[in-house]
Fold this protein.
Amino acid sequence: MDTTLNYSPNFEIKKRKPKQVKFIIFHYTGMKKESDAIERLTSMRSKVSSHYLIRYNGEIVIMVPDLYEAWHAGLSSWKNLKSLNKHSIGIEISNPGHEYNYKKFSKKQIQSIKKLSKFLIEKYKINQKNILGHSDIAPDRKKDPGEKFPWKYLAQFGIGKWHSLPHKTLVKNRRKKISLLDKKKFYLNLSKIGYSNKCPKEIKKDKFLKFVISAFQRRFRQELIDGKIDQECLLISKNLVKKLD
Ligand SMILES: [Zn+2]
């Protein structure tokens, strides 16, 4: 694999064991200029970093060696885990993000994401269900890598989970209302998948739920992000839970 080096000083000094690496977390840089993102990820003052950065031209930059904990996830949770940094490899992908004209990821970026992910999955025996986006593990704070991230395409290569419902079924159930009981089922499915159900004190419960629904949609129902549960969302969640067992 072709890589270049541009080390970041932002990582934990204590080395971890290869078997502690259990997750891959995808991000976008969320800055107007790629050079500014690189500057930020390698500046001591920012206190943020990631293991890899994938540039617009597809170049894979190593910023922190895999066995050191990089500072990419921040406050985060998935299933019973908190602070995913300890257990994960962070991959940043150049993209201005939702704040600055969110772009499609380039073909070269997608090919590099695929190559790098396959390499890491193989090397650390990472489970397909542990390949996540930043918004999955921090839904109240983050939107990255966002609804343009090619989850469906990548799942064909074992990179992350995807459902197995035909598009026709999905569209038919889109925006269809669901009962209160079904809403409860949906939330239960979300927590089975791994999403947090603990609302932080500083956020109102319904606001928090909307964030979690939106995170689920950015990941698994990318054609409509409205923060509302409909039949389609429920179907997708059911299908995913079945596949995770
Ligand atoms: Zn992020």
The radius of gyration is 18 Å. The chain has a mean pLDDT of 97. DSSP finds eight helices and ten strands in the chain. Residues 27, 134, 142, 144 surround zinc ion (CB under 6 Å).
